[in-house]
Amino acid sequence: MNMAWRGCFVKLTKTELINSVSTVSRGCRLTLHPQQKCGFRKEARKPETLKRNSGTPKEKVPPPSEAGDAVVLRKAARPPTGAPPPNASPRHTGKLFKPFIFTIGFTGCSFGAAAVLQYESLKSRVQTARDKTNGQASQDTTYWHNWWNQLTDFQKQAILLLSFADDIWSGLTEGQQVASAIIAVNAMVLCCWRIPSMQRSMLKYFIANPASKTRCLPMILSTFSHYSVIHMAANMYVLWTFSSSAVSVLGREQFLAVYLSAGVISTMVSYVCKTAIGGRLRPSLGASGAIMTVLAVVCTEMPEAKLGVLFLPVVSLTAGYALKAIVAVDAAGLVMGWRLFDHAAHLGGALFGVWYVSYGHKLIWRRREPLIKAWHGVRSPGPGGRGGPGGSGSVGGRPGPV
């Protein structure tokens, strides 16, 4: 009896053990493999299911490892609230700091050098007058006469040719002499544009572009740069026409300081307008901004002077109205986006000329006396030295507009 019960117990135990093992193995198959297969199916079926249900093309969902990066890229591409538009990016605005500092420094150095140059010029004239009164002129004439007799015929012919050129130069007014020197420099730069080996340097230093890596030096070099002969001829004609009047008002040295400073200031105004407007930053070159300053100085100082129109000799108008008309045309061109000329540089040059005649002459040129006295102390050290001009307000030419 006991043996029978023991046999039944062993048989039932083996049957339950086999059933539990098969259940566990079946459970393992259900918990492992189906989850992996379903997981892969869900990732593969998700875009297809969306397309069937919506009927419109949906954006493909990237894998989990790329989803975060895609979200980050989309967030980075979207501009933040309150940020400036792409055209007026701070990257371009920050590039204007160095040109601004260069404009201030170059303008100050130009007027300082002009004051020193005027001092040296006047001192040389005073020294020449003293030499003549001391009788040294006759000794110099005798020396040069003996030197002339020792020259060959070829050397004498060359000296006579130079003397003829000097007579022509002396026949020009002081303003025309200054304009001739500026025209010569512009002609040399125009020839350099025609040399293939210099194209890279010309594009780097003789074109003003706020987007370029070199922004400061081209602000002054582009003032003497013209690529077109017609462009240069038009600018130099206006310079030649108004140079005599401008130099008679300002004096030679002050005129040069105003002209050079106007080239840099007008380019700086062009930089600011191009950066503020945005879009493609177009390069520019030419002396139009500086020449507009010369024109504005003459028209502001002599508003009642009569000006004729080129190719229309019958038409004439006063200088004051002519300046207002030119400023109005350039302002309209800047607002309407005309790209034939650099209207911002024209406006900057004209406004600088009007400001200098009205206020700048008093603020800058009439306050140069401490600089001239310091330079006089360097050139003539010690008490009782050979004194030159002390730097009064009337040194050289007319005192300028008041």
Automatic annotation (TrEMBL):
<dbReference type="Pfam" id="PF01694">
    <property type="entry name" value="Rhomboid"/>
</dbReference>
<dbReference type="GO" id="GO:0006465">
    <property type="term" value="P:signal peptide processing"/>
</dbReference>
<feature type="region of interest" description="Disordered">
    <location>
        <begin position="39"/>
        <end position="69"/>
    </location>
</feature>
<keyword id="KW-0999">Mitochondrion inner membrane</keyword>
<feature type="compositionally biased region" description="Basic and acidic residues">
    <location>
        <begin position="40"/>
        <end position="61"/>
    </location>
</feature>
<keyword id="KW-1133">Transmembrane helix</keyword>
<keyword id="KW-0472">Membrane</keyword>
<comment type="similarity">
    <text>Belongs to the peptidase S54 family.</text>
</comment>
<feature type="transmembrane region" description="Helical">
    <location>
        <begin position="178"/>
        <end position="195"/>
    </location>
</feature>
<keyword id="KW-0496">Mitochondrion</keyword>
<feature type="compositionally biased region" description="Gly residues">
    <location>
        <begin position="382"/>
        <end position="402"/>
    </location>
</feature>
<keyword id="KW-0378">Hydrolase</keyword>
<keyword id="KW-0809">Transit peptide</keyword>
<feature type="domain" description="Peptidase S54 rhomboid">
    <location>
        <begin position="218"/>
        <end position="359"/>
    </location>
</feature>
<feature type="transmembrane region" description="Helical">
    <location>
        <begin position="254"/>
        <end position="273"/>
    </location>
</feature>
<dbReference type="InterPro" id="IPR022764">
    <property type="entry name" value="Peptidase_S54_rhomboid_dom"/>
</dbReference>
<feature type="transmembrane region" description="Helical">
    <location>
        <begin position="216"/>
        <end position="234"/>
    </location>
</feature>
<dbReference type="InterPro" id="IPR050925">
    <property type="entry name" value="Rhomboid_protease_S54"/>
</dbReference>
<feature type="region of interest" description="Disordered">
    <location>
        <begin position="378"/>
        <end position="402"/>
    </location>
</feature>
<dbReference type="GO" id="GO:0005743">
    <property type="term" value="C:mitochondrial inner membrane"/>
</dbReference>
<feature type="transmembrane region" description="Helical">
    <location>
        <begin position="100"/>
        <end position="119"/>
    </location>
</feature>
<dbReference type="InterPro" id="IPR035952">
    <property type="entry name" value="Rhomboid-like_sf"/>
</dbReference>
<keyword id="KW-0812">Transmembrane</keyword>
<feature type="transmembrane region" description="Helical">
    <location>
        <begin position="309"/>
        <end position="329"/>
    </location>
</feature>
<protein>
    <recommendedName>
        <fullName>rhomboid protease</fullName>
        <ecNumber>3.4.21.105</ecNumber>
    </recommendedName>
</protein>
<dbReference type="GO" id="GO:0004252">
    <property type="term" value="F:serine-type endopeptidase activity"/>
</dbReference>
